[in-house]
Specification:
The chain is built from 12 helices and 20 strands. It is α/β, with parallel strands linked by helices. It binds guanosine-5'-diphosphate, 6-O-phosphoryl inosine monophosphate and magnesium ion (MG).
């Protein structure tokens, strides 16, 4: 298999960083194709923890190339900070092994300010965004007034474009949201630094990708967020502003759909969600607290406590179907240890009717009540287990039922944050 897409099948934070890191051992290229620094992908190797935002999660491996493709929105300050942080820790990262698309849109400081001002003005109705300017940047891209990283090559023209954009953004920031205006000179001081430091990384990543595809290289496509946060298929408006579905790899990176060889859906053994929006299996009780504590469920990007709940197989089935996933990667099975009873949602009850889909209407989705199956729990430290036969019998049963209900077999099971704490069941490359 050459071209494998990894997607989150829930609301993000399924453990994509860890799984991409493991699969990179046998890959040549790792490609981010959507989202931006709203993503926080954690890898743990040799007791060291790395939280990545934009740099593809294969970066710890020597001899591999990371691509940030045109579908990603990039805050240059965050990317530079990440490159510097990794370098300071001895990770080799430079224009030789990291390529950034000149077509990727720039998250400007006014995008971040607008994101935060809008959220602040919404009160209880807020989306609960990461506040990183993702939505406003994609808006400008769709409105055809965005600035792309390649525009940094001509700073005079960049200045003209930024000046036009700033005229409009400052009206919104000051008039509508009572914020201070942003200054063009300050923005251009940043732009000069970005041009200087990021210039060597910029290229047409699509052409590099096509050459790698032609050579039959092993390529991993690292999705960000999760299918339930998809702009088109998620619980709109409580979604992100890009498409985390697998098919988005064609738009975001330019991989022709027929070249996708494998699709792996990441599924946490329970559910979490950060931000607002319907969450039928949410647990606002001691069990939810247990999952949050044992699973360290606090946002990588914002530090916010994640909402926790039982596994929802209506959600995962929908994602597996939408993405055409052929396998699951099940993560955080170890976190469930110690609970006497485990519940799995198989269906919903909507106004008394049993349904097996997520209603498009957000109000109806919010009225869905989960229909549960109950399974006996298991105990013990799973982190040393490397074969499914060595799992407690009840953990094995839970896994089997999970994969039956989700509609795909597991390719790997993760039993701890470290890259070694993994049960491999299927080789992707
Ligand atoms: P991502 O956004 O999908 O890459 O996931 P995050 O990195 O935001 O969140 C997943 C969290 O769970 C990280 O802190 C990981 O280190 C951790 N993690 C990943 N897999 C496992 C696992 O199998 N067990 C445990 N206990 N933690 C895990
Ligand atoms: P990774 O890649 C979890 C959520 C936010 C909010 C909504 C919109 O680490 O899985 P945005 O800033 O994108 O406009 O916020 O989407 N969100 C994520 N939740 N994991 C993520 O990324 C997320 N990226 C965005 O919490 O509800
Ligand atoms: Mg995350």
């Amino acid at each position: 298999m050459s071209n494998v897409v990894i997607v989150g099948a829930q609301w993000g934070d399924e453990g994509k960083g860890k799984v991409v890191d493991i699969l990179t051992r046998k890959a040549d290229l790792v490609v981010r194709f959507q989202g931006g620094n709203n993503a926080g992908h954690t890898l743990v190797a040799g007791g060291q923890k790395y939280a990545l935002r934009l740099v593809p999660s294969g970066i710890l491996h020597d001899g591999k190339t990371g691509l940030i493709a045109g579908g990603v929105v990039v805050d240059p300050d965050v990317l530079l900070e990440e490159i510097d942080g990794l370098s300071a820790r001895g990770v080799r990262v430079g224009p030789g092994n990291l390529k950034v698309s000149e077509k990727a849109h720039v998250i400007m400081p006014y995008h971040q300010a607008l994101d935060q001002a809008r959220e602040g003005s919404k009160g209880a109705g807020k989306i609960g965004t990461t506040g990183k300017g993702i939505g406003p940047c994609y808006e400008d891209k769709a409105s055809r007034i965005g600035l792309r990283l390649g525009d940094l090559r001509d700073l005079e023209s960049f200045r003209d474009q930024a000046e036009r954009a700033l005229g409009e953004k400052n009206q919104l920031l000051t008039g509508l949201y009572g914020q201070s205006p942003q200054k063009l000179d300050e923005l251009m001081a940043k732009a000069r630094l970005w041009a200087d430091r990021l210039g060597p990384y910029l290229t047409d990543t699509w052409r590099l990708l096509m050459a790698a595809v032609d050579q039959g290289r092993q390529i991993l496509f690292e999705g960000a967020q999760g299918v339930m946060l998809d702009l088109d298929h998620g619980s709109y408006p409580f979604v992100t502003s890009s498409n985390p579905v697998a098919g988005s790899v064609s738009a975001g990176a330019g991989l022709p759909p027929r070249k996708i060889d494998g699709i792996l859906a990441l599924v946490k053994a329970y559910s979490t969600r950060v931000g607002s929006g319907p969450f039928p299996t949410e647990l606002e009780d001691q069990t939810g607290e247990y999952l949050r504590r044992r699973g360290t469920e606090f946002g990588t990007v914002t530090g916010r406590p994640r909402r926790c709940g039982w596994l929802d197989t209506v959600v995962v089935r929908t994602s597996v179907t939408l993405c055409g996933a052929d396998h699951l990667a099940v993560t955080k099975l170890d976190v469930l240890a110690g609970l006497p009873e485990l519940k799995i949602a198989t269906h919903y009850l909507l106004d008394g009717e049993k349904i097996d889909f997520i209603p498009s209407d957000i109000r109806a989705a919010a009225r869905c009540r989960p229909v549960y199956e109950s399974w006996p729990g298991f105990e013990g430290d799973l982190s040393k287990v490397r074969k499914t036969e060595d799992l407690p019998a009840n953990a094995r049963r839970y896994l089997e039922r999970m994969s039956e209900l989700c509609g795909a077999p597991p390719a790997l099971v993760s039993v701890g944050p470290d890259r070694e704490e993994t049960i491999m069941l299927h080789e992707y490359f």
